[in-house]
Amino acid sequence: MLPSVTQSEIFYEDLDTVRFAPEVPAPERRAQTVAAIGSMMLGLLVGNTAALLSQTQAFDSQPLLGLLAGQSTDAGSKDRLAFLRLARSGWIRVGVVPAKRLRDDPPDGRRRTLLNAFRTALGNPGFRLSAWPELADQDLRARLLEGLDRAPDDLDTEVGPALAARAEGLLELDRSLRRGQRNGKRSIIRVGTPAGDALDARVHADLQSAGDGSELAAVRRWLSGPTAWDTVNSRSAWYSVADTCPVPDGPAALRQLVDGHYNAIVGESLGAPGLSLTCADDDAALLLARHYGLKAQLGSRMVDLLPTPGLDWLRWSHIPGLLDELQDVSPSRRLTDLHSRQLDWLKGQPAPDPGLGLSLQLALPASMLTTAASMGESVVGGSPPAHAAAQAAVTGIVALLAATPLARRAGRRLRSRAERRQAGQRHRGEQWENAIRTGAAAWPDLTQPHTG
Description:
This protein is α/β, with parallel strands linked by helices. The protein has three domains: about 10-190, no CATH class; about 200-270; about 300-440, no CATH class. The chain is about 50% helix and about 10% strand. The protein is built from 19 helices and nine strands. It has helices spanning about 25-45, 55-60, 60-70, 75-90, 115-120, 140-150, 155-160, 160-180, 200-210, 215-225, 235-245, 250-270, 280-290, 320-325, 330-345, 365-370, 385-395, 405-420, 430, and strands at about 10, 50-55, 90-95, 190, 275-280, 300-305, 360, 400, 435-440. A nine-stranded mixed beta sheet has the order 4-3-2-1-5-9-7-8-6, with helices on both faces. Helix 1 (about 25-45) links the parallel strand 1 (about 10) and strand 2. The longest helix has 22 residues, at about 160-180. The radius of gyration is 22 Å and the shape is globular.
């Protein structure tokens, strides 16, 4: 039996479905997957916090659906079973909107479920499903909906094996969440109303405070012209504004800012006390950190922990056992233990492909850094962030960095070097794996126990 969650919940922007849409370059999708899955794993293991997902993340996020469909290999099957066990035990939680916003005809009569939320999306031809590109075919979409209702155990016949594998994985997740809820776990969260301002007010406020010389300040000056931006109140509408922006690098920076606020609002609607935001634009990341009071100036120490493709020392199948082993251990000791396990795994492994290198900047919880500051150099690197991040890119290990101004400056220098090395290869997907992603995270205070 898994231990109970002793802290609280974190909502992860990392799983935003737009980051895994088919039009996103494959190298970027791979990097996003490492960031999303790795961040969730560290939140569970180090923060002892449950992962809180929106219903759309749960049924339309490619990394999760890939995990749930992973039955073709023994390792994939074990990962899938471990994730479902976490869902049954309350470590993975999903927010579902009120029943009145969902279809009123579920076969089992239960309206407020993840499965019925997916059925509602399927039944709306205008709902674009990023992780199900085949379902742009409305006939196939209708067959999947009918198969889920009438013959969920025979989906291969209705829609083919690839689509059926994802749908069957989603059915298993729905069953696991329901079982957890029946057993008294907070597996299914009721979606409420966000407490803060609307999206347009948040974006306006940050654009007004953008520092002179930044791309977002240039975007603000452009928007001060005849553009009617006061009425832009949805993410898709802001994307349309960004598409017309003539400022160099302005469209990407504006989308990053909008995405951060959009996901913060989603997290608020779920009642999440913890928020993880990641952002590829330095200025947008700093504005978001200021806006939400995130821990953006907590130090510059590094933990080489997140698994990257080809270096899968940490898998979902390991998580339940590790949670049990580490349940009475402090955050700093958890870091020490995980780092030791990683080093043991790396012994004797062949040198990784340098092309797998990826560096990820996130702010760590204040209480974690307080305890981690006294740890040995072999566990938390004390080297300058520029050197640490460059080293991570060479070894192929993903680095977790506190998102401080110092780390950001180091990131800018590394990006500049990467761009010079890759002159003539301007495609953002080709450069992604050499970039430093900036961001910030607000986690619940790890010094305060929480039951849930």
